[in-house]
Amino acid sequence: MTLQQGLSALIPVDDAVERLLAEARLLVEPEHCKLVDARQRVLAEALVAPCDVPGWDNSAMDGYAVCSASTATGPLELPLFGKAAAGYQPMPLPAGHAMRILTGAPLPEGADAVVPQEDCRIEADRVLVPVVQTGQHVRRRAEEWSMGEAVLAAGVRLAPQHVGLLASLGIDRVCVYRPLRVGLICSGDELREPGQILGPGQLYNSNRFSVAMTLAAWGFDVQVLPTLPDQLEPTCEALRAAVQHCDVLISTGGVSVGDEDHLKEAVRRTGQLDLWRLAIQPGKPFAFGRVEGCPWLGLPGNPAAAWITLLVVARPFLLRVQGVEQVRPWTLTLQAGFQWDKPSVRRQYVRACVEQGHMVHLHPQQSSAMLKAAAWAEGLAIIERQTSIKPGDPVPFIPFAGILD
């Protein structure tokens, strides 16, 4: 079935995500950046280890470097010779001696093991050591990485631990994709900015903040554009202008069936509408199309619905066009701590918290228009279509921690 053939039906969430990913094409070019600026950037090329790590055998703890053969017949009292500290090359260890060694210090020539200091007894300039095995408490050269070994693949989105790993290899610059330029447009005559006085029927534009900040947390270059009026021609003009400066357009509102919902028609007139109406609750009016070739994702206007469809449906597409390979959300299977007797023809994403490490509990307010539950929740519990849940049933859970950064 083509995208156009699915316009009149409620499209299952997984099908919609697959269809969006099938339409996803890399929209950004490679560039180089300093490692200190690399967090959340997406690798444009695979990286290999430029050196061995560690670069030499070194001590895994504070203690005494010895030759294991010296203790082959049992505990032995050895004369002390010198000291090895991190950052310095020690003198060779004479046969039949022990050397004081600190964590991370290179193992002296002539030694092949380290005895922890708590296992030794010191008397004047001698140390009593137990029987030790070759390689005991020694970090071997290239134990972590060998020169030329594959480290990170292209398409990896760099988290702090990745950046630290690259630093440990001496890498100071990386080839990454430039940040995706995302234009955010909110639609509706009723919208006002926080700080303004509301008139009858007017609302504060929370989508501008929740959606924009989520996009920024994903590492995108977010451009918040002027709010659209509920008029068709100005909407068409604004869309045409926005695509001149953006890689992707995201809108909130204007995609339902109301008399003043003009965005779908504006997208048809300026490009093509490929997908509309999902079997998801909240968020049924989600839409996808192109404005003069530029991808457009139309989120619902209700704040909870807009945010959830951004997380569940839009996120995989946005990450893929940014160059990310792994775009699926991290999902746990936990235990329901609630009763759900409201099966729906749509898959439901309900705001939930986890108690006792495994028990999912729901917020009592699950309205698509309200963010109270989202601010309370730790993630989204998934209730499949035509499904009831009783306490103790397994339930899929998407932690916010895995999809908001």
Q: Can you offer a commentary on this structure?
A:
This protein has 405 residues and is an alpha/beta fold. The protein contains seven helices and 26 strands. 18% of the residues lie in helices and 28% in strands. The chain has helices at 13-23, 160-168, 207-217, 232-242, 263-270, 303-321, 372-376; strands at 30-34, 47-48, 58-59, 63-66, 76-84, 98-101, 113-116, 121-123, 126-129, 138-139, 150-152, 173-177, 181-186, 191-192, 203-204, 221-224, 248-252, 271-276, 280-281, 287-291, 294-299, 332-336, 347-355, 359-362, 379-383, 394-399. Helix 1 runs parallel beside helix 6 (303-321) and helix 4 crosses helix 5. The longest helix has 19 residues, at 303-321. The protein is elongated. The chain folds into four domains: 4-28 and 180-321, Molybdenum Cofactor Biosythetic Enzyme, Chain A (3-Layer(aba) Sandwich); 32-53 and 147-177, Molybdopterin biosynthesis moea protein, domain 2 (Alpha-Beta Complex); 58-139, Molybdopterin biosynthesis moea protein, domain 3 (Molybdopterin biosynthesis moeA protein, domain 3, Beta Complex); 332-402, Beta-clip (Beta Barrel). The strands form seven sheets. The protein has a six-stranded mixed β-sheet, with no helix packed on it. The chain has a six-stranded mixed β-sheet with strand order 16-13-17-21-20-18, with helices on both faces. It has a five-stranded mixed beta barrel with strand order 22-24-23-25-26.
